Amino acid sequence: MIFAKHINRGLVRAALLALLGCIAGYANIVTIPAGLTPGTQYQLAFVTADTFFVTSTTISEYNTDVTNEAPLNAALATFDTANNVTWTVIGSTPTVNATANAPSTGLVYTLNGAGVASSASSLYSGALLSAIDINQNGNSLSTRTWTGSTSVGTVSGGINDLGQTFPEFGNSTLTTGGWIASGNGEESDNSNSLYALSSVITVAGTSAVPEPGMIALMTGAVLLLFAISRRRRNSPALQNR
After folding, report:
1. 41: enclosing H helix or E strand
2. CB of 44 within 8 A of CB of 199?
3. Region of residue 117 (phi > 0: left; psi between -120 and 50: alpha; otherwise: beta)
4. pTM
5. For residues 24 and 138, is the Cβ–Cβ distance under 8 A?
6. Of 6-20, 85-99, 150-164, which range is least confident?
7. What angle do CA 59, 119, 45 make, to 5 degrees?
8. Gyration radius of the chain over CA positions
9. H helices within the chain, ranges in order?
10. Domain 41-202 indexed as CATH 3.10.180.10
11. What pLDDT is stored for residue 148 in this prediction?
12. What angle do CA 191, 165, 143 make, to 5 degrees?
């Protein structure tokens, strides 16, 4: 019986540590940038941790690629589900401009809270406020990134669009001159990252308010702490002291 109690206590502690680990992981990304007031609308952007070939001329295939990348981070998946967030690629094929596929005219942030664009300096103004150099896991990533676009988000044309022979690529650390190194092309059967842009998100509360996923995890942790405390108080060893 004593052995069973020790096992149960060990399981409870293990579960608590797992929950605390999830909470720590959730803090790796910033999904509600600091300083935004309720009702503010904004978008998030990241560079994919995985790389892709860009031999297809169908933009939906690249939208699927970035959509599949986002939930690889459980914290981002939780936020996306709670806020109905969808993702599209910042890229152009011969028939689709990035500006139409991933429209944005307002606030854009990376997943570490850095401002990328504003209403005064949009994502497609030709220059960024900061680089899109954070991947979906919240890690810094300096890499070549397929865009198939000019610095203002339009189709490069000729052999430089996604799905063509030498698509344009950007550099995830680039800010001045936009998110693409204009005039640079690379063979489409090479593998590079993609840029992802979220749908528009509306701030429901200040950044000080925990997000839905965080609230659930914290509640679970508190309940487990209570269970451990109660088990210790009811332990025969403690009662016989």
Report:
1. strand 41-47
2. no
3. beta
4. 0.75
5. no
6. 6-20
7. 40
8. 23
9. 2-26, 59-69, 74-83, 98-101, 212-233, 236-239
10. no
11. 95
12. 30
What phi, psi does 240 have (nearest 5°)?
-90, 0
Q: Domain residue spans in the chain?
A: 41-202
Query: Which one is predicted more confidently, 11 or 88?
Result: 88
DSSP state of 71: G
Residue 18 pLDDT level (bands cut at 50, 70, 90): very low
- Residue 64: Cβ within 10 Å count: 14
219 burial (CB, 10 Å; 0-12 / 13-18 / 19+) is exposed
What average pLDDT does range 68-86 have in this prediction? 97
| Residues sharing a CB contact under 8 Å with residue 81, sequence separation 6 or more, in sequence order | none
- In the block, residue with structure tokens 């090479």: 190
pLDDT, tens digit (0-9, with 9 covering 90-100), for 23-45? 444 448 999 999 999 999 999 99
Residue 146, pLDDT > 50, answer: yes
Joined tokens for residue 219: 């509640």
Contacts of 96 (CB under 8 A, 6+ apart): 59, 155
pLDDT at 220 over 70: no
Measured at the CA of 123, the angle between CA 122 and CA 125, to 5 degrees, comes to: 60
